[in-house]
Design a protein that fits this description.
By secondary structure, this protein is an alpha/beta fold. It has a single domain, classed as Uracil-DNA Glycosylase, subunit E (3-Layer(aba) Sandwich), CATH 3.40.470. It has 8 helices and 6 strands. Strand 5 and strand 6 form a beta hairpin. The longest helix has 19 residues. The mean pLDDT is about 95. The structure holds uracil (URA) and iron/sulfur cluster. Uracil binds next to helix 3.
Length: about 190
């Protein structure tokens, strides 16, 4: 791992900026290629992620791995992380907790420099849309869209997607999410 990323990971492991440190087992920093072009951003660790310290290893993770396969990618090709780095007992961070934790995500984006950022679900999507000053709408409207942004320093593509856990709760979404991922891969391959 790049030195700067390892240092950042250590900082997260020692972090007590919000009260979620008290209920975490292992923080989930993120994993994948340090030079990944694609960064996936979920919400935060659930039960299984908290046990192992790795992102998306439970049921939603299994679907995410399937979606990556549909898109012709493997987990190792991308970088997978979350808005929140510590276990969310009720799956809902407060605004204050999001504010405390997202500087870590911002640093990850700066160090890895992905050209494609895929927020998964409403909360990650809202954070990324605000960060890059894109006009926000619910994920039900934005899912699968390919949006280009340019900042002073970089050019990137934002592709909002449904959260895989939402697709597991709703069979209709499961078909839609698969179509979104396949179409996304086709669009990227044609670029
Ligand atoms: N859900 C998320 O948003 N992130 C994970 O890492 C696992 C489940
Ligand atoms: Fe720190 Fe984020 Fe964990 Fe809160 S959730 S303790 S801000 S690493």
């Amino acid at each position: 791992m790049k030195d700067d990323l390892s240092r950042l990971k250590k900082k997260v492991e020692d972090c007590r900026k919000c009260k979620l440190w008290k209920t975490r087992n292992k923080p989930v920093f993120g994993e994948g290629s340090d030079n990944a072009k694609i960064m996936l951003i979920g919400l935060g660790p659930g039960y299984h992620e908290n046990l192992g310290g790795r992102p998306f290893v439970g049921a939603a993770g299994k679907l995410l791995t399937e979606l990556l396969t549909l898109a012709g990618r493997q987990r190792e090709d991308v970088y997978i992380t979350n808005i929140m780095k510590c276990y969310l007992p009720n799956n809902r961070p407060t605004e204050k907790q999001i504010k405390a934790c997202t500087p870590y995500l911002n640093e990850q984006v700066e160090l890895i420099k992905p050209t494609i950022i895929m927020p998964l679900g409403n909360i990650a999507n809202r954070y990324i849309f605000n960060k890059f000053q894109l006009p926000l709408a619910p994920i039900g409207k934005l899912h699968g869209k390919i949006l280009s942004i340019s900042t002073l320093l970089s050019q990137a593509t934002i592709i909002p997607m449904y959260h895989p856990a939402a697709a597991l709760r709703n069979p209709r979404l499961k078909d839609i999410i698969k179509i979104d991922w396949k179409q996304m891969a086709q669009a990227l391959n044609n670029e």
